[in-house]
Amino acid sequence: MAFRTFLKSPPFWLIIAAACIVPASLNSFTAYLNSRVTGRTNWVEVIFAASLWLIFGALTPIPYLLARRFPLRREGIVRTIWAHLAGALLMSLCWTSVGVLLSLPLVRRPPQISFLRYYASSVLTNLSLCVFLYFAVLGCIYAFSYYREARERESQQARLAAQLAEARLSALRMQLNPHFLFNSLNAITVLVRDQNTQAASRMLELLSGVLRQVLQSEKRQKVTLDEELQFIEKYLAIEQVRFSDRLQVRWSVEPDIRDALVPEFILQPLVENAIRHGIAKLSEAGKIKIRARQDNGRLILSVEDNGPGYYPVSNIGVGLANTTARLANLFGERGHLQMMNAKGGGTVATLRFPLKRVADG
């Protein structure tokens, strides 16, 4: 496939033309200068000097076709070498034969030497040069073709890597949705057991709206920060039904970054973690602060609570593991999730990744 592309692509014929026209021009110019030195311009000699290299260019399909027929592989290397030696000999015979025929009108052959001897001498004289040029052209053909193959493999590997990353992200997202649904339904179950039917009914209404957004999503990996914050507002409305006046939410979002692109549902696990491990363990009112700002080309999102604080454990939950994996797949080393104790008590979870806006494409 790479050889067919090599044959059909314009650079192939441009390279062949340049390889023929440049030495043909130089050779004819040298012949012209030599004839001028003798005092008489022999245009036949000049044309003949140029024709030799143009003929060589016309014969270059021989190494190309043999390279296509016998690719350079470890298996069958002996057969490939013999094929190219035969090709070099054939090219030498063809080049010399046409050159001898063109030289006949110029009377280049001494009259005391027979045509056969003159032809054999020309073949032997041109053989070493033609073999060298044959393998030089062959090396260029192999180098270019394998370069094209390497580029195609790199392109294919990039496509496969992108498809793999997309599949991983989709799997992580599918993992997140049931996890979120399970925790919400568990909260509703607690309200029903406490016979708080009004709060359970309100929570089911809000949950249906959130699930509708999740299920009807276009499976985008990234949304605007404004869309993500709207989803978090709906999620927090569900939790505020459960905690009533015990849950207070504060927002601090720079207005000029609401069009920034963020991974969809990236904040929900952090907010859920703050509620489950922070607010739920308090007897007094709990506070959650959600911040969004930019700093040196990075988008920084944080969720802070006033709970008992952060205590690292070996087995992190599904939500945090999911978030870390998504950041790694989307941003590599440029995406970070940091969990630490907040000043004055509580936990702060901070996301950092490159800032990219909708207008950036």
What does this structure look like?
The chain has ten helices and seven strands. The protein has 361 residues and is of the alpha+beta class. It has two domains: 2-157, no CATH class; 196-360, 2-Layer Sandwich (Heat Shock Protein 90), CATH 3.30.565. The strands form two sheets. A five-stranded mixed beta sheet has the order 2-4-5-7-6. It has a two-stranded antiparallel ribbon with strand order 1-3. A hairpin with a 2-residue loop joins strand 4 and strand 5 (298-305). Helix 7 (197-215) packs antiparallel against helix 8 (225-243). The model has no long low-confidence stretch (mean pLDDT 78).
What are its keywords?
361 residues; alpha+beta; Heat Shock Protein 90; 5-stranded mixed sheet; 63% helix
Brief write-up:
The protein has two domains: 2-157, no CATH class; 196-360, Histidine kinase-like ATPase, C-terminal domain (Heat Shock Protein 90, 2-Layer Sandwich), CATH 3.30.565. Helix content is 63%, strand content 12%.
Q: Any idea what the CATH superfamily of the largest domain is called?
A: Histidine kinase-like ATPase, C-terminal domain
In which range does the helix fraction lie?
Answer: 55-70%
Number of strands: 7
CATH fold node name of the largest domain: Heat Shock Protein 90
Using the alpha-carbon principal axes, give the shape: rod-shaped
CATH class of the largest domain: Alpha Beta
